[in-house]
C-alpha cells in the first residue's frame, strides 16, 4: 500500500479554552503512551542533571520525568496558554523540580551543550522542517547526554483510516480529524531513519513504539544504573510496555 506525501497540519493558535480541551485529551493517554515515554526518558538519561522537554504543551511529560528522576526539568512551548496550564498541573501534582518557559523549538533559547537530556514527544509532525528541530535539540544537549524523540508515523490511507477508527474509537469527529491530520503530517519510518542519518545519530537509534509511533533514542553515556518503573494501573501495564524503549 502506497503512502501519500506528507501533508502539514494547519497552524492553529490555541487560546486558553482550546488549551484546556487539549489538556483534557492528553490526560487520556497519561497511563499508557505518556507513561511509557516518561519511563524511557528517565532510564536513558543520567540520574540527575538538567533536562529539557521541547514542545511541552500542558507539561505532563516534563512533570512525569521530574517526578521520577532527580533532574531539574525545563519545558518550553510557544503557547503561553499551554504553559499556564502546565504550571497549574505541576502545582497540583506537587512537583517542584520543573519549570515552564516560553521558547521556540526551532530556535531553542539555550546555549550549546547545556542539558544532560533533551526530549520531545509528538512534536516533529508540527514542524515543517523537523531536521532543524532535531539539530537544535542536539545543539543544546551535552555530547554525552541523552536525546529521545518520539512521534507518530505516516501510513497509507487505508492504515490511517484503520488506526483512526480503532484507536480513536471513543473520539468525536473533530478529534478523529485532528488525529488523522497528525498522522498525515508525520514522517514515514524511512524518512525518520534518513533524518537520523543526516543529523549524525545513525539508524541504530531508531525503534518502533507499538504500531502507532516511532522513536529516535540516544542513551546518555552515563545513564542511570537503577531501573525506574513508572507505575500504572494493573490493566494498563501491558499496553504501557509497548511504549517503553527496549534496552
TrEMBL record:
<dbReference type="InterPro" id="IPR029063">
    <property type="entry name" value="SAM-dependent_MTases_sf"/>
</dbReference>
<feature type="domain" description="Methyltransferase type 11">
    <location>
        <begin position="52"/>
        <end position="149"/>
    </location>
</feature>
<keyword id="KW-0808">Transferase</keyword>
<dbReference type="GO" id="GO:0032259">
    <property type="term" value="P:methylation"/>
</dbReference>
<dbReference type="InterPro" id="IPR013216">
    <property type="entry name" value="Methyltransf_11"/>
</dbReference>
<protein>
    <submittedName>
        <fullName>Class I SAM-dependent methyltransferase</fullName>
        <ecNumber>2.1.1.-</ecNumber>
    </submittedName>
</protein>
<dbReference type="GO" id="GO:0008168">
    <property type="term" value="F:methyltransferase activity"/>
</dbReference>
<keyword id="KW-0489">Methyltransferase</keyword>
<dbReference type="Pfam" id="PF08241">
    <property type="entry name" value="Methyltransf_11"/>
</dbReference>
Amino acid at each position: 500500500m502506497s503512502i501519500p506525501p506528507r501533508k502539514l497540519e494547519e497552524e492553529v493558535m490555541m487560546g486558553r479554552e482550546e488549551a484546556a480541551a487539549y489538556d483534557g485529551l492528553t490526560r487520556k493517554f497519561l497511563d499508557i503512551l505518556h507513561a511509557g515515554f516518561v519511563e524511557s526518558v528517565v532510564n536513558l538519561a543520567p540520574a540527575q542533571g538538567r533536562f529539557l522537554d521541547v514542545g511541552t504543551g500542558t507539561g505532563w511529560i516534563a512533570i512525569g520525568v521530574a517526578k521520577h528522576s532527580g533532574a531539574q526539568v525545563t519545558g518550553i512551548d510557544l503557547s503561553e496558554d499551554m504553559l499556564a496550564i502546565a504550571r497549574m498541573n505541576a502545582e497540583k501534582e506537587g512537583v517542584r523540580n520543573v519549570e515552564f518557559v516560553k521558547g521556540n523549538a526551532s530556535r531553542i533559547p539555550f546555549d550549546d551543550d547545556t542539558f544532560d537530556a533533551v526530549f520531545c514527544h509528538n512534536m516533529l509532525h508540527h514542524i515543517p522542517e523537523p531536521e532543524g528541530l532535531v539539530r537544535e535539540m542536539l545543539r543544546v544537549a551535552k555530547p554525552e547526554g541523552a536525546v529521545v524523540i518520539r512521534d507518530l508515523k505516516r501510513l497509507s490511507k487505508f492504515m490511517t483510516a484503520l488506526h483512526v477508527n480503532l484507536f480513536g474509537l471513543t473520539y468525536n469527529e473533530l478529534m478523529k480529524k485532528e488525529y488523522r491530520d497528525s498522522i498525515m503530517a508525520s514522517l514515514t519510518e524511512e524518512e525518520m531513519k534518513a533524518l537520523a542519518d543526516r543529523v549524525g545519530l545513525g539508524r541504530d537509534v531508531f525503534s518502533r513504539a507499538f504500531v502507532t509511533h516511532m522513536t529516535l533514542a540516544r542513551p546518555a553515556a552515563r545513564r542511570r544504573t537503577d531501573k525506574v518503573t513508572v507505575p500504572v494501573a494493573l490493566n494498563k501495564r501491558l499496553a504501557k510496555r509497548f511504549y517503553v524503549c527496549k534496552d
